[in-house]
Amino acid sequence: MVEKKWYSTEDVELAKSSLDELPDLTSTRLTKTDVLEQLKEKIIELANSKGYSVEDIRSALSSAGIPVSIKAIREILNSVKKSTSRTTRNNKVTATPSGKTAP
Fold first, then answer.
1. Are 70 and 58 in contact (CB under 8 A)?
2. Which residues are within 8 A (CB) of 32 and not within 5 positions of it... i.e. 6 or more apart?
3. Other C-beta atoms within 10 Å of 35: how many?
4. In the chain, N or C terminus with fewer CB closer than 10 Å?
5. pLDDT at 96 > cutoff 80
6. What are all long-range contacts of 66-73, with beta carbons under 8 Å and residues at least 24 apart?
7. Positive or negative CA dihedral for 56, 62, 63, 64?
8. Taking a C-beta distance cutoff of 8 angstroms, is the pair 54, 84 a contact?
9. How far apart are the C-alpha atoms of 69 and 58, rounded to whole Å?
10. What number is the average pLDDT over the span 8-28?
11. 3-state secondary structure (DSSP) of residue 67
């Protein structure tokens, strides 16, 4: 078949129509980052409340078909520790030299 060199406005409109009919695949084609973001609360719960190690969590995810690095899991857990330490630090009341407390 010979490839067209020129296209009409009608061809463009037909192509637009065809593209508009394609389904949204964003919920079926998640990146690893998207998946980890959706699993973040569960990962934190397993590590902090249920005593699972980073390796245990990595192994469970791998057996569920989601291979992930230990580093990625640690980053999730460290991000939570950093945000809670910032909040704690910002909420502390400090004493002034005059003995009065300042917020």
1. yes
2. 66, 68, 72
3. 13
4. N
5. no
6. 66/32, 66/35, 68/32, 68/36, 72/32, 72/36, 73/43, 73/47
7. positive
8. no
9. 7
10. 94
11. coil
